């Protein structure tokens, strides 16, 4: 049981939670995620650790209400408990001084981008962030990202904030205007697929943070398997980040509909 | 090893002598083996309650008469933890069922579990005098073991093994499967302060997430764990050693010894085309959804596919559990697809028998080549290669050989891959200093279960690959002995 000590609505459907988890707060790194369970009948659902406060012993998760379990999660309030919380899971992001790193986050995918932006900046990179969403109020964590990124570009589908257009248009503009050494992308799978296709064209190494269906998150079930470079990988232990140019996104998109 | 002298001394107790005289051996050996009462197949395929109902006191008594209380009880040699089999059975015969249960617990931490899931026909029962010399059906040791253990559970008089006063030495256990539980129990008895860390949100390892309710009710596992809690063992769920807490953290927290019982929970796939289609999954995923996450329960948030035409690939206990679960979730056609013949199947004989009674089809000597799906990616059919048996291979089983050109397409809407598991890589990849075999198992000293890192011991599936509950427990007990001796020497 982990106590919720902070709750803030980032938009109507997106909630930021601060949750007590002292051991995880201490050991987690950028790229790690946790699995939570809400209620005795609850399922196990994965969430990226967006940030942590080792002194306070808390971690921050950003939850988008997209359905049953995330909906239950979003109903919880300060003082309530998360039934189960386990982590940190997955491999940490490979952080290095690459030069210029372009971080492209779409929708709630902006959440996993934040810790990467922070870690990449601290490792000495020039960090450019592109945040994209359908509309203005879905652009989350902008201020937090601005603390670390050298440049922040905003794109919305409807033009209500920043530039109007798709994230790929923004990515292409930057790639054409300066030398990008690494691209990191997180967001809806279809978005990552298009970003990946684009950067492949320009030969820019790209990392995608995948979000398949999971059960245990410890390598026990294989529900999270994806094909990367023709081989089966388990996202929960081999990922969640992979060389985007090797990922079979179409298969991942198909598998995300397993329980529709 | 139990010494001959000890066994004889116990056998020569007046009550055992008297009991032997109450019936002639010929009368005993003429008795037929009792039949386990079962739920009828047509009813049980609609529920998850236990198939075996347990022996009645009358049946248990009748069966206990069959045991000859042999001078040389060979049955014990077939049991990896050396349960004193004649002693517990004779206690049943004289009506001292609680004593029988106590006898079991002298060497077996989880008798209610083992009575249900041990492959007795390959262990204790295969070594019984009846099989060895009389060519008759063995004494039903497993059924009797379950009877005595259940009797104790139901009596509310569960004996809590005595524990020595605490020596304040902290010991960490990684994993709450049978290996970890057996180790924890023995160390608690010796006075150690034991904490078991479990990655999942519930305790029991495979006993919880793998073996279904109709074969091993969760209640049984809970009761056994309660006993350990009463003995002072602490449990931490949702804690992954190597991730939440590192090897160094454990040292820093003052743990003087670590036992690794992290199991073999990594599912293998065949790497054939179509294996990532929707509806194709590992047996671990399927069983975890149903057992750990209770997906069959309508108010559970966890979904599970309820296929109508389900193929399970494999012939072990896991495959039988998966296919029988599929039947209970409404499969009209539930099939086992196995590349060898029935004779080579590693599953317990009872599970195969129960599966057949439940209408499971057995496609032996068939091996999947590929799966094909519909436009949405749902699996719809599988291509099977027909096989024949060749010469015996390294395992002594006859090798399956494809019959060139002999293939068949079969319609399916769900496929469960159950071709074995590999050792869980988490500990070997996050701990330093452990030696690991090419198969991913941790290397240990077979006498003591000590690894190359002196304060770390290991046992169960993480050192054996996939094995059995009782072997895992035997390892846990051996490791407890080994670690105790090592600590006494070094501290
Ligand atoms: C490594 C990782 C990190 C993630 N980080 C975040 C994050 O920081 N913030 C965030 O909002 N979301 C994140 N997600 C996605 C989040 O886990 C899903 O949105 C959530 O599980 C959906 O559950 P639901 O029951 O509310 O949705 P529903 O649409 O009601 O779910 C339908 C069914 O899909 C299944 N499902 C399981 N996992 C997923 C999944 N990953 N995506 C879609 N369906 C799934 C469930 O079994 C569920 O029953 C992450 C996913 C992964 C794998
Ligand atoms: C479906 C199925 C049916 C079976 N049927 C039978 C049967 O009928 N008879 C029989 O004798 N055997 C059977 N077996 C085999 C038997 O269950 C195993 O051999 C036995 O459970 C192994 O015990 P273990 O303690 O080594 O590991 P497990 O039971 O696998 O337990 C390991 C535990 O460790 C936890 N863990 C792993 N890594 C970590 C970590 N880093 N930190 C914390 N916790 C961790 C896991 O979550 C798990 O709970 C069956 C197996 C399966 C899968
Ligand atoms: S523990 Fe298993 S092998 Fe040993 S006597 Fe009991 S049923 Fe037989
Ligand atoms: S070998 Fe068979 S008959 Fe003899 S003591 Fe063991 S169980 Fe009884
Ligand atoms: S979620 Fe089960 S193996 Fe990754």
Percent helix of chain A, as a range, is: 25-40%
Largest sheet of chain A: 7 strands, mixed
Quaternary structure state of the chains depicted: heterodimer
Mean pLDDT level of chain A:
95
The largest inter-chain interface, given as chain pair and residues per side, is: A-B, 37 and 41 residues
Our count of helices of chain B gives 20
Ligands bound to this protein structure: flavin-adenine dinucleotide, iron/sulfur cluster, FE2/S2 (inorganic) cluster
Q: Percent of residues of chain B in beta strands?
A: 15-25%
Which regions of chain B are unreliable across 5 or more consecutive residues at pLDDT < 50? none
Distance between the termini of chain A: 30 Å
Mean pLDDT of chain B: 94
Q: Tell me the name of the CATH class of the largest domain in chain B.
A: Alpha Beta
CATH architect. name of the largest domain in chain B: 3-Layer(bba) Sandwich
The total number of structural domains of chain A is 2
Report the CATH architecture of the largest domain in chain A.
Answer: 3-Layer(aba) Sandwich
CATH hierarchy, class of the largest domain in chain A: Alpha Beta
Element-by-element helix/strand order of chain A: EEHEEEEHEEEHEHEEHEHEEEHEH
Termini Cα gap of chain B: 27 Å
Task: State the main characteristics.
heterodimer; A: 260 residues; alpha/beta; Elongation Factor Tu (Ef-tu), domain 3; Rossmann fold; seven-stranded mixed beta sheet; five-stranded antiparallel beta sheet; 8 helices; 17 strands; globular; B: 491 residues; Fumarate Reductase Iron-sulfur Protein, Chain B, domain 2; FAD/NAD(P)-binding domain; five-stranded parallel beta sheet; binds flavin-adenine dinucleotide; binds iron/sulfur cluster; binds FE2/S2 (inorganic) cluster
Question: How would you sum up this structure, described in words?
Answer:
The complex is a heterodimer of chains A (260) and B (491). Chain A has helices at 22-27, 68-75, 110-122, 142-148, 167-177, 189-201, 235-238, 249-255, and strands at 2-11, 14-20, 33-37, 44-48, 51-53, 58-64, 81-82, 84-89, 100-106, 126-133, 151-156, 163-164, 182-186, 206-209, 225-228, 231-234, 241-243. Chain A is an alpha/beta fold. Chain A has two domains: 2-89, Elongation Factor Tu (Ef-tu), domain 3 (Beta Barrel), CATH 2.40.30; 100-257, Rossmann fold (3-Layer(aba) Sandwich), CATH 3.40.50. In chain A, strand 15 (225-228) and strand 16 form a beta hairpin. Chain A starts with a strand and ends in a 5-residue tail after the last helix. Chain B has three domains: 4-155, Alpha-helical ferredoxin (Fumarate Reductase Iron-sulfur Protein, Chain B, domain 2), CATH 1.10.1060; 170-265 and 423-490, FAD/NAD(P)-binding domain (3-Layer(bba) Sandwich); 270-417, FAD/NAD(P)-binding domain, CATH 3.50.50.60. Chain B is built from 20 helices and 15 strands. In chain B, the strands form four sheets. Chain B has a five-stranded parallel beta sheet. In chain B, strand 8 (333-338), helix 17 and strand 9 (361-364) form a beta-alpha-beta unit. The longest helix of chain B has 22 residues, at 469-490. Classes of the chains: A alpha/beta (260), B alpha/beta (491). At the A-B interface, helix 1, helix 2, strand 8 and helix 8 of A face strand 5 and helix 15 of B. The complex binds flavin-adenine dinucleotide (2 copies), iron/sulfur cluster (SF4) (2 copies) and FE2/S2 (inorganic) cluster. Residues 117-119, 174-180, 197-200, 205-206, 210-211, 240-242, 261-263, 265, 287, 317-318, 321, 348, 424, 426-427, 460-462, 466-470, 472 of chain B line the site of one flavin-adenine dinucleotide.
């Amino acid at each position: 049981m982990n106590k919720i000590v902070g709750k803030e609505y980032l938009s109507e459907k997106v909630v930021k939670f601060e949750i007590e988890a002292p051991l995880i707060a201490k050991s987690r790194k950028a790229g790690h995620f946790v699995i939570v369970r809400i209620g005795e009948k609850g399922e196990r659902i994965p969430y990226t650790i967006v940030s942590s406060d080792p002194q306070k012993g808390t971690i921050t998760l950003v939850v988008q209400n997209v359905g049953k379990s995330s909906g239950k999660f979003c109903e919880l309030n300060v003082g309530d408990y998360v039934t189960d919380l386990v982590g940190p899971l997955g491999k940490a992001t490979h952080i290095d001084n690459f030069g210029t790193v372009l971080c492209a986050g779409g929708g709630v995918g902006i959440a996993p981008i934040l810790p990467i932006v922070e870690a990449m900046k601290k490792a000495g990179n020039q960090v450019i962030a592109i945040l994209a969403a359908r509309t203005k109020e879905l652009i989350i964590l902008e201020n937090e990202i601005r603390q670390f990124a050298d440049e922040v570009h905003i794109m919305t589908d409807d033009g209500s904030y920043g530039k109007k257009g798709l994230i790929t248009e923004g990515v292409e503009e930057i790639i054409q205007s300066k030398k990008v050494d690494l691209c990191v992308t997180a967001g809806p799978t279809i978005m990552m697929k298009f970003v990946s296709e684009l950067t492949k064209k320009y030969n820019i190494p790209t990392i995608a943070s995948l979000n398949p269906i999971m059960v245990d998150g410890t390598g026990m079930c294989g529900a999270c398997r994806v094909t990367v470079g023709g081989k089966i990988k388990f996202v929960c232990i081999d990922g969640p980040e992979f060389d985007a140019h090797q990922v079979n996104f179409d298969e991942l998109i198909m598998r995300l509909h397993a329980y529709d | 090893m139990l010494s001959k002298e000890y066994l004889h001394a116990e056998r020569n107790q007046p009550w055992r002598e008297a009991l032997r005289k109450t019936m002639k051996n010929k009368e005993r050996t003429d008795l037929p083996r009792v039949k386990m009462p079962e739920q009828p197949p047509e009813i049980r395929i609609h529920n998850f309650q236990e198939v075996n109902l347990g022996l009645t006191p009358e049946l248990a008594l009748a069966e206990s008469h069959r045991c000859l209380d042999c001078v040389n009880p060979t049955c014990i040699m077939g049991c990896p933890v050396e349960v004193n089999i004649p002693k517990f059975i004779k206690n049943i015969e004289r009506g001292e069922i609680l004593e029988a249960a106590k006898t079991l617990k002298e060497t077996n931490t989880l008798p209610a579990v083992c009575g249900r899931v041990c492959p007795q026909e390959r262990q204790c029962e295969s070594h019984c005098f009846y099989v060895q010399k009389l060519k008759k059906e063995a004494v039903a040791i497993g059924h009797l073991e379950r009877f005595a253990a259940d009797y104790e559970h139901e009596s509310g008089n569960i004996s809590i093994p005595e524990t020595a006063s605490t020596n304040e030495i902290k010991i960490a256990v990684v994993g709450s499967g049978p290996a970890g539980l057996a180790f924890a129990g023995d160390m608690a008895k010796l006075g150690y302060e034991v904490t078991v860390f479990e990655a999942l949100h519930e305790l029991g390892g495979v006993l919880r997430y793998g073996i279904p309710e109709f074969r091993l009710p969760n209640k049984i596992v809970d009761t056994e764990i309660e006993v350990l809690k009463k003995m002072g063992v602490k449990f931490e769920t949702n804690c992954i050693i190597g991730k939440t807490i590192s090897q160094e953290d454990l040292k820093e927290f003052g743990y003087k010894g670590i036992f690794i019982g992290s199991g073999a929970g990594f599912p293998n796939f065949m790497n054939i085309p179509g294996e990532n289609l929707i509806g194709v999954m590992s047996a671990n995923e399927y069983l975890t959804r149903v057992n750990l996450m209770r997906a069959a329960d309508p108010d559970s948030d966890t979904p599970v596919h309820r296929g109508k035409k389900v193929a399970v690939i494999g012939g072990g206990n896991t495959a039988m559990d998966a296919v029988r679960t599929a039947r209970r979730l409404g499969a009209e056609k539930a099939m086992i697809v196995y590349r060898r013949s029935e004779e080579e199947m590693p599953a317990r004989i009872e599970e195969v028998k129960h599966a057949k009674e439940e209408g499971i089809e057995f496609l032996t000597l068939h091996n999947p080549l590929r799966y094909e799906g519909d436009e949405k990616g749902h699996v719809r059919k599988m291509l099977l290669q027909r096989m024949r048996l060749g010469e015996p291979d390294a395992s002594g089983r006859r090798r399956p050989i494809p019959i060139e050109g002999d293939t068949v397409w079969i319609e399916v809407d769900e496929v469960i891959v159950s071709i074995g598991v590999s050792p869980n890589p988490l500990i070997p990849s996050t701990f330093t200093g452990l030696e690991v075999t090419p198969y991913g198992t941790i290397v240990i000293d077979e006498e003591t279960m000590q690894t190359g890192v002196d304060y770390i011991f290991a046992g169960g599936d993480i050192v054996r690959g996939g094995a059995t509950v009782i072997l895992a427990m035997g390892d846990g007990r051996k490791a407890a002995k080994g670690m105790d001796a090592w600590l006494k020497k070094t501290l």
